[in-house]
Design a protein that fits this description.
395 residues; mainly beta; Cathepsin D, subunit A, domain 1; 2 domains; 47% strand
Length: 395
Amino acid sequence: MINRIWLFIIFLICPSIGKAQQNFYDTDFTLSHKSFVFTIPIEVEHNQIYLTMEFQGQPLRFKLDTGASQGVIYDDVPLNGLTEKGYIKSKDANGQIRQVTTVELPTFKIGQLSVSNYKVQKMRRQVMRKGEDGIIGFALFHKGITAKIDIRNQQLTLTDKKDYFKQEKGEILKYQLHHHVPYIKISPFEDVEEEVLFDTGSALPYAINEQSFTQLTRRHPTISKQVEGTTYGSRIIGHFGAEHPKLITLLCLKRLMWGRFAYKDVHCTTVQGGSHVGAPLLQYAALIINPFRRRLILQPYDNQMSCMVSNRQPDIVIVENDGQAMIGMVLNNSQAWADGFRFGQVIEQVNNKPITFAQFLRFKWVKDTKYRFTITLPQGARETIQALWPFQYNN
């Protein structure tokens, strides 16, 4: 049996809604160069893509998130020169809506390119992830910048030349813009096509909306053969908190088709937010974003028409609850379950020391060491669990 723990922290900044959205979303930012081509380094951590942007000589690290319309600057980042532009309603990955501040960033540089008057939302971060200062969204490309994301070589090529990648081949999917972010049609099941958000801000290869899944299984009963099981809880953390607890369906897809290219043995779950594919798919192929023809071109690294993903479901997921670490989901055949962890338990202390959610994520766990967890149950009672953490892989 394989014991494991993943902390799935997924940020999907959906575009804003209503009249305020139209007032504040724009691509009126300016670029310092025309007819440019350059390549910059990127970093990949926890299946997320990061690039460094320079603000008045100050380097800040932004996540590349095609699921965000414009982007985000976190309110704890010490950046001077922000100009408030008003308020806007924003919806997160779980459909929760809040009013947030829109700000204009000071001029910044990406490689040799200077970008002025770029607007983002200013938000409180739900998770203190070291080395992440903000998010750069799809507006950067929608402005008219073609990009090639190459995770294997850890580089990003940007150009405003329409035909720069004209001769490059790959599996082409046309995208449609909904609320300023790209949606494509993929095939998660045989004879089934689904429109999903292409979201590099997600650390999941694929997630399917629970209502969409229910409707599909009614029309295609054979889909139920790819169900691994069910559990109860919440898995996704959006900008405004964790999703509401519900029944989660665990799936093992035989194949997930991007055009003719097959991702095989893909483990995924239902979610309360929208269906999407995420950055992990780019481990197996480079990707060209062409905003002029609204195309996403997948270029498999090994020139094959399929790859084995064989990712694993997490034994246990931690979410935030009023600043504390809460058990969001536990598989009932896992070591975490056997040790006594259950959905809804709040971890108040580790080795008799109080701990917050942010501290829990940053805690320096020692392999093969048992820890004493002081747990508060949903009913308010307390208990202690002795367990290894994090759960180790036994290959």
